[in-house]
Structures are given as C-alpha cells and as structure tokens.
Amino acid sequence: MLPPDFRLPKFFAELGPRLPQRPWSDALCASLELARLTRQIDADFSFLEGRTVRLIIDDLGARATLRYERGHFRPGSAVAEADVSFRAALADFIKLARRSEDPDTLFFQRKLRIEGDTELGLQLKNLLDTIETPAWVSHLLA
User: Fold this and answer.
1) In the structure, what pLDDT confidence band is assigned to residue 22 with cuts at 50, 70 and 90?
2) Whole-angstrom Cα distance, residue 134 to residue 19?
3) Which residues pair with 64 in a beta bridge?
4) Do 124 and 84 form a contact (C-beta atoms < 8 A)?
5) Burial of 22 (0-12, 13-18, 19+ CB in 10 A)
6) What is the pLDDT of residue 41?
7) Whole-angstrom distance, CA of residue 126 vs CA of residue 120
C-alpha cells in the first residue's frame, strides 16, 4: 500500500518523456479491449467514437493516448492533440483504480486535472464511475 502522499522521485518525470510513449498506449488499449471482450467492462463507449483521450502520469513522465474507433480501443498518436486529457500523479491514478478516492475529491484538490473538452471528460468520468473494478485489478492494486 502506498503512503497517501507518495510521489515518484523527480528522476522519473525527467526521464519518462524521453522514452517511447507508444508502449503505455498499447498496454492501456490491450487492457481495455481484454476487459471489454471478457465483459469485465460492459459499457457503451460509443460517445468516444473518433475521439482521442490521453492519460498523463505527471510524476512518471508517461502518456497513454487512445482512440475509440468502430467499437474498439486503439493506440493514438502521442503527438496528436487529444480531445480530452486526464492528468494526475501515479499514486492518484492508483487511488482512482482502487476506488479509495473519489475523482471529484481529487479534482477539487487539484490532484486530478481534466484538460480539453471537459464535457467529454465528465461524461467519461461518470461512465467509469458506474463500472465496477474487475477483481484481478483490485487484487493487483491491493
């Protein structure tokens, strides 16, 4: 379990942007597709059709970019402009995944930032709030 104020050493934030970002996008898309295909996530993502979403892990210097096209999550270009971006520290994204912290709380504490099309971001956030975390994810993050 991470301490509440955990932050990765500054070294990671400096090194991360110099590394290829595609593996982050590939891993995120593969995880979402697997969860969708095995019905661990059974939600309507059609409102994301043709849109680009980016997750930015500030203290890791990592960016995962995805697009939703023809009913599937696909890695997006790291240099393309995102329709909406979510930014937070690694520990805060883990809190969201564990459901130990509410996204609204992190937002009002300025630990989670939504940039770009905030209406799309809120729609996605609200949808994700309705999805129960798969058991294997909960176990992995415990």
Assistant:
1) very high
2) 30
3) 55
4) yes
5) middle
6) 81
7) 10
Could you give all domains of the chain from N- to C-terminal order, each with its CATH number? Answer: 10-130 (3.30.1050.10)
Name the token pair of 60: 């890791």
The 10s digit of each residue's pLDDT in 58-116 is: 999 999 999 999 999 999 998 889 999 999 999 998 888 888 888 999 999 999 999 99
Reported as half-sphere exposure (CB side, CA atoms, 13 A), residue 119 has a value of 1
DSSP-derived letter for residue 49 is B
DSSP H/E element including 80: none
- Listed residue (20, 77, 72, 16) closest to 48, CA to CA: 72
CA distance 17 to 58: 10
Other C-beta atoms lying within 10 Å of the C-beta of residue 78: 16
68 neighbors 25 (Cβ within 8 angstroms)? no
Residue 31: what are its φ and ψ, rounded to 5°? -65, -45
Q: Is the dihedral of CA 102, 132, 40, 71 positive or negative?
A: negative
